[in-house]
Amino acid sequence: MIWSRGRGPGVAPGCGPEFPPTAPGGVSAQENVNGGLNQNYGFGRSWSKELAEMNRRKPHSRAFTLIELLVVISIIALLISILLPSLTAARQEGIRVKCLANLKTLGEHGGNYLSQDLKGVIHPQSRSGETNWIGLGGWDFGGNEGSDKYFNESFGGESLGCATRPFNIASVGQSLTRDSVFKEYICPTDSGEVLSNNWQPSDGIAEDLDAYRQQMAKATGSSYLGDYPLQIGAGNRRLRLGSFMRPHSRFPSTAETLLFYETRMMQAILSTEEMQDLGWSVTPISVPGWHAKLGEFNSVMADGHGQRIRILERGTMFDIQGSFPASQYPYKAWMARGPGWRFDCMPDEPVQECFQGNPCP
Q: pLDDT value at position 182?
């Protein structure tokens, strides 16, 4: 029997294919042809079966339902609410550390000045201090030009402006001008004085009251305060119990004696029940610090180390009135101390400031 390509046996040329019921091998001729095609093109199964298998294996995707989407959003919101306070606290702590680093730099300035000063003074007096007592010993050790007239060169020869401040003169020298900038004297979160019925930095000196309430550095040129306003006497005879103009050898404890600190810290000291017991006319309150913490303040000690100090309306300062006998501490009304820190240098004698011809120590 003769088979022709594409036709069954005995089919005349030009006629359609005729397949016998079975082909050699026991399969139909049609299956034999399909098998040959599949074998020729490398497929083991028919196209229809292959497509069906592909469709069966293809993964079916579906969209989020509204409930599922709301659950995801709720989880994200919950995570944000948990993390945000921590991130805010971390940011505030970073700023506080930066502020403390500024104060430590000021402590280094004091140490450099001390090493060159013949009298061994670490907190010197401003060059114009002999004619202007206002703010003397407070913000005049160094810093920028302030907007308040007493800390601005426009006030004339009595100004405690930038160009008269001893740390500025020591660090810059002849190139010092009123436009010189000293960033280390500005606390990043300096928000000025807090309003209260107790002592405020602007009391008795402010010509630009708004500046004191916006930023101490704006008003005075420095966020940081020194030996002020706990001073004894009036007129041209003023005595100081703290670091101002005091020879380094006369500090009872340089590790505990305050050198400079955030200005609001003195507001906190003069708002305590302990100072009220010493006769100060104050209403005890807890003063908020500049770093989102109630009663917490940065400082640098006379030995140059930085320290965080906590002062609340009561219980965080020593009981000066009941613990220090007046016979040994005649000026105890101007003393302020707490755990690890002290403002005064008693029982060492007070230092008289150089003002209107008084001799310097």
A: 96
